[in-house]
Amino acid sequence: MMIGPHDIQKRVLIVAEIGNNHEGDVALAKDMIHAAAQAGADAVKFQTIVPERFVRASQVERMVQLQRFALSYEEFTQLKTVADETGVLFLSTPFDLESVAFLNGLVPAFKIASGDNTFYPLLQAIAQTGKPAILSTGLADLEQVRSSMRRFELEGGAGALAILHCVTSYPTLPEQANLSAIRTLKDAFPHNSVGYSDHTMGIRAAVASVALGARIIEKHFTIDKQFSDFHDHQLSADPEELTEMVLHIRELETMLGTGEKVAQEGEENNRIGGRRSIVSKRSLRAGETVTLEDLTWMRPGDGMPPGDEHLLLGKRLTAPLQVGEPFSLEIVE
After folding, report:
1. Strands 43-48, 13-19: parallel, antiparallel or unpaired by DSSP?
2. Cβ contacts of 163 within 8 Å, gap of 6 or more
3. Peptide bond before 171: cis, by omega within 30 degrees of 0?
4. If 0-12 CB within 10 Å is exposed, 13-18 middle and 19+ buried, where does residue 22 land?
5. What is the DSSP string of 99-124?
6. What's the CA gap between 11 and 216, in Å, rounded?
7. How far apart are CA 130 and CA 118, in angstroms?
8. Could you tell me if 277 and 301 are in contact, meaning their C-beta atoms sit under 8 angstroms apart?
9. Region 70-74: what's the mean pLDDT?
10. Which of 145, 167, 166, 160 is nearest to 214 (CA)?
11. With 80 as the cut, is the pLDDT of residue 11 above it?
12. Class of 10-256 per CATH?
């Protein structure tokens, strides 16, 4: 699956989820893009929220916070420019239909939040752009994931659809991370890329998810865990943690290899020393007939290998052998 120029089957896509951790400060948002890029992230992601289209007016406290954090469409366009200049992909999650239309000119792929994996009009609007989409699956069981995917496909979704395991709990407790669900999703949807949107504290779950097959990692990102009392900062990775996470994931990708079970280059020097040869268990005279009781197996493996015993049994020796000397076909007839 391609996200912009990034082939996620060849290299895990690491997304720094800035979300609303800029708290409405576009200058801070730009600084965070630079910090994420410096940490090694492949992409930055925001949330395009128009508060009046997202929550009811009766949710006064929530509305006030969202209005304080909201960035304008023009400011998102500026952030896209900064991301391009910095060399990271720009992504943002739309939370209303109009924002889908706006972001279509900015993003290489759409992200669908867990809370909206049942917001079918949004899925329809995104599907009709023809772009790839990334669907978070928090709050959903396997049947709901199937339903959301079917709706995306039925609405004309021509772009590839990736599925992220996610637990919509902030922070997610270790015993509720349920990372094995990544394998469940891979088995249930073998033709879709699977990833992980991490809400646990620290970076261990994100790194572990790659070993389970995650090809997209989304981790909340903050410039400072103590920036404010907004809860996302505390569960987010700061620049030092994000740098460490990226390094661990890249190292793990190298360790995972191709999956083809073949002897590795570094093993070749140990092949002879680590294998065994068929050798004489006792001193044998020329003319004796070789029996199984005459054989034993010792290192190094520079002689006849185990499994070739049948080539020796019942044959007559043409030369003597001392204890531990290797057999060869040249001395039997």
Report:
1. parallel
2. 134, 135, 137, 145, 149, 185, 189, 192, 193, 194, 195
3. yes
4. buried
5. HHHHHTTT-SSEEE-GGGTT-HHHHH
6. 9
7. 19
8. yes
9. 98
10. 166
11. yes
12. alpha beta
SS (H, E, C) 230-246: CCHHHHCECHHHHHHHH
| 20: helix, strand or coil | coil
Same topology, domains 10-256 and 274-331? Answer is no
For the chain, the distance separating the N- and C-terminal CA atoms, rounded to the nearest angstrom, is 62
CATH: 2.40.400.10, 3.40.50.170, 3.90.1210.10, 3.30.420.10. Which one for 274-331? Answer: 3.90.1210.10
- Helical spans, DSSP H, in the chain: 26-39, 60-69, 73-86, 97-103, 120-127, 142-154, 181-188, 204-211, 232-235, 239-256, 271-274
The whole-number pLDDT of residue 183 equals 98
Judge whether 16 and 242 are in contact, CB under 8 Å: yes
116-158 tens-digit pLDDT: 999 999 999 999 999 999 999 999 999 999 999 999 988 766 6
Mean pLDDT of 22-37: 98
CB hemisphere CA count around 100 (13 angstroms): 21
Domain ranges of the chain: 10-256, 274-331
d(CA 198, CA 243): 16
Mean of pLDDT values over 69-89:
98
